[in-house]
Design a protein that fits this description.
It is built from four helices and ten strands. It is of the alpha+beta class. It has one domain: Cytidine Deaminase, domain 2 (3-Layer(aba) Sandwich). A six-stranded mixed sheet has the order 1-3-2-6-9-10. The chain is globular, with a radius of gyration of 19 Å. It starts with a helix and ends in a 34-residue tail after the last helix. The structure holds zinc ion.
Length: 209
């Protein structure tokens, strides 16, 4: 679907198979554009863009079997999306089918949607995770990826697989009591001793739904 519209994809096949690691890169031109527009103004509203030119490449770099498809997505060009009712914490927008979406998480914290209550920084500033709404939207749209800009030069790609039931390999490693120390904040203690790291290099990048 994307390949037909974009004309730039490396191949017409979709990234598929034993998917392991997905990486995303915002290339020079869109990155410079987004860097310039980044502001610490506490009264800004969310901005949104449609990705009009992107590609992906599939690589086989895992050293353990089975061979898995690692995918690198590259964003070459974006355009501003028509936004309805943008607030400091949300933006209603819809890119045409086949154009992945990029939106900005502003560096401010607000009380609800009133822009006048926003302050620079604060508890929720620089949040680089997709919200529940962001994840529900990407699943509904069937996009391969979407992007959040959460700091001047920081971009977080997210994928439909970030939402939904845990993949079977994650579930089985959990029942083996192999806890991933990366999921624990300093305030949390693993109730069992940490086991060896998972042998699947792809599982470390998966996020609990
Ligand atoms: Zn968001």
């Amino acid at each position: 679907m994307a390949a037909a519209l974009m004309g730039v994809c490396a191949a017409s096949a979709r990234p598929a198979g034993a998917q392991a690691v997905r990486l995303g890169v915002v290339m020079d031109l869109p990155r410079q554009m987004l860097e310039k527009l980044w502001t610490d103004d506490e009264h800004q509203t969310e901005r949104a863009y449609c990705v009009t030119d992107w590609s992906y490449g599939v690589y086989h770099v895992s050293r353990t079997k089975p061979v898995q498809d690692d995918t690198v997505f590259r964003v070459f060009e974006i355009r501003e999306a028509e936004t309805d009712a943008a607030t400091p914490i949300s933006a209603e927008f819809q890119c045409p089918e086949g154009m992945p979406e990029l939106h900005v998480h502003t560096p401010t914290t607000c009380m609800g949607e009133d822009v006048n209550t926003c302050v620079a920084g604060g508890l929720n500033a620089f949040s680089c995770q997709p919200s529940r709404g962001d994840l529900e939207k990407i699943v509904q749209r069937h996009d391969e990826f979407a992007v959040i800009q959460c700091d001047k030069r920081a971009f977080r790609f997210y994928y439909p697989s970030d939402y939904g039931p845990a993949p079977p390999d994650y579930a089985s490693s959990k029942s083996d009591n192999r806890r991933d120390a990366g999921n624990l904040t300093p305030a949390m203690k693993a109730d069992e001793q940490l086991g060896p790291p998972p042998t699947d290099p792809g599982s470390g990048s998966r996020v609990k739904p």
